[in-house]
C-alpha cells in the first residue's frame, strides 16, 4: 500500500519568514495531493491541492509543488503570520479515490511574532 | 448549509460500553467516511460509504460498525469500547460521482474510554 512520509514533524519560523513542509509518497498510482491545516481543537480544512498533471499551484501566500519523478510534493508558505501556526497534513490519493487515502503524520508549525 | 455535523463533541465511556457517534451532512454528498486521529499517526480511515446502502472497510475497521440508510447520515457504532479506541473521530464527506472532489470534515468527537 501507499506510504506517505512528512517532514519535519515540527517547524518554528520567525514571522515574515518562509516555511516549507515536504512529503514523499511511494505509490506511483497516487494522483491527487491535498494539504490540510488543522488549528488546535478544530477540524482539518483543505488549504490547497495539486493533481499529478500539474507541477505547481499557488494561492496567495501558499504554494504547492509536485515532483512526480522523485515522488515528493511540498507546501510553501511565504511571509508567515502568527495565524499560520497550526498542524499541517499532507495526503496522497490514487485514482480510486478517498477510499485509498494515506495521510502524513503532520507538521506542527509555530510562527514566532 | 450546516456542512458536516457531528455529535457528541465529547464522550467518556467505560470499557465494554457501546455507543453511536452521529454524523450528518446537508450537501447531498455521495461519499462519506470516518477517520480516527491519534498523536503521531495522522488520520486513519475506519469505514467509508460511496452512497446510501453501500459501506466498506477502511484501514482500521475492527471494533466499529457503520450503516448508511440515507444520503445525509452516516453513524459510527462502537460495539464494545476499549481503551485503544480513545481518540478523536472525524467524519468527512465529498461530492464524489467520478474523480476526486474536495473533502469536508466535521468538527470531531473526542472519545475517552476508561
Fold and architecture overview:
The complex is a heterodimer of chains A (113) and B (114). Chain A is built from no helices and eleven strands. With 113 residues, chain A is mainly beta. In chain A, strand 9 and strand 10 form a beta hairpin. The radius of gyration of chain A is 13 Å and the shape is globular. Chain B is an all-beta fold. In chain B, strands 2, 4, 5, 6, 9, 10 and 11 form a seven-stranded mixed sheet that branches. Chain B has a four-stranded antiparallel sheet with strand order 1-3-8-7, with no helix packed on it. In chain B, a hairpin with a 2-residue loop joins strand 5 and strand 6. Chain B is globular and about 40 Å long. The N and C termini of chain B lie far apart (36 Å). Chains A and B meet through strand 5 and strand 9 of A and strand 5, strand 9 and strand 10 of B.
Provide the β-strand percentage band of chain A.
over 45%
Q: Please write the string of helix (H) and strand (E) elements of chain A.
A: EEEEEEEEEEE
Structural class of the helices, strands and pairings of chain A?
mainly beta
Measured between the Cα atoms of the first and last residue of chain B, the distance is 36 Å
Helical fraction of chain B: under 10%
Calculate the mean pLDDT score of chain B and round it: 94
- The gross shape of chain A turns out to be globular
Following the backbone from N to C, one meets helices and strands of chain B in this order, namely EEEEEEEEEEE
Strand content of chain B: over 45%
- Counting helices, strands and paired strands, the structural category of chain B is mainly beta
The proportion of residues forming helix of chain A, as a percent range, comes to under 10%
The average pLDDT score of chain A comes to 95
How would you concisely characterize the structure shown here?
With 113 residues, chain A is mainly β. Chain A is built from no helices and eleven strands.
Amino acid at each position: 500500500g501507499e506510504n506517505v512520509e512528512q517532514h519535519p514533524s515540527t517547524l518554528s519560523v520567525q514571522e515574515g519568514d518562509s516555511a516549507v513542509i515536504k512529503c514523499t509518497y511511494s505509490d506511483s498510482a497516487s494522483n491527487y495531493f491535498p494539504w490540510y491545516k488543522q488549528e488546535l481543537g478544530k477540524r482539518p480544512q483543505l488549504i490547497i491541492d495539486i493533481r499529478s498533471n500539474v507541477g505547481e499551484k499557488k494561492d496567495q501566500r501558499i504554494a504547492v509543488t509536485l515532483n512526480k519523478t522523485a515522488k515528493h510534493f511540498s507546501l510553501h508558505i511565504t511571509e508567515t503570520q502568527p495565524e499560520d501556526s497550526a498542524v499541517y497534513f499532507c495526503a496522497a490519493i490514487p485514482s480510486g479515490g478517498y477510499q485509498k487515502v494515506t495521510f502524513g503524520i503532520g507538521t506542527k508549525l509555530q510562527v514566532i511574532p | 448549509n450546516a456542512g458536516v455535523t457531528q455529535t457528541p463533541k465529547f464522550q467518556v465511556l467505560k470499557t465494554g460500553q457501546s455507543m453511536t457517534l452521529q454524523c450528518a451532512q446537508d450537501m447531498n454528498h455521495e461519499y462519506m467516511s470516518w477517520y480516527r486521529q491519534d498523536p503521531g499517526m495522522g488520520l486513519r480511515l475506519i469505514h467509508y460509504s460511496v452512497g446510501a446502502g453501500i459501506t466498506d472497510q477502511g484501514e482500521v475497521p475492527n471494533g466499529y460498525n457503520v450503516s448508511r440508510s440515507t444520503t445525509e447520515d452516516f453513524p459510527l457504532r462502537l460495539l464494545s469500547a476499549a481503551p485503544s479506541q480513545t481518540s478523536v473521530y472525524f467524519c468527512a464527506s465529498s461530492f464524489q460521482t467520478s474523480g476526486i472532489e474536495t473533502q469536508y470534515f466535521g468538527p470531531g468527537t473526542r472519545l475517552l474510554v476508561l
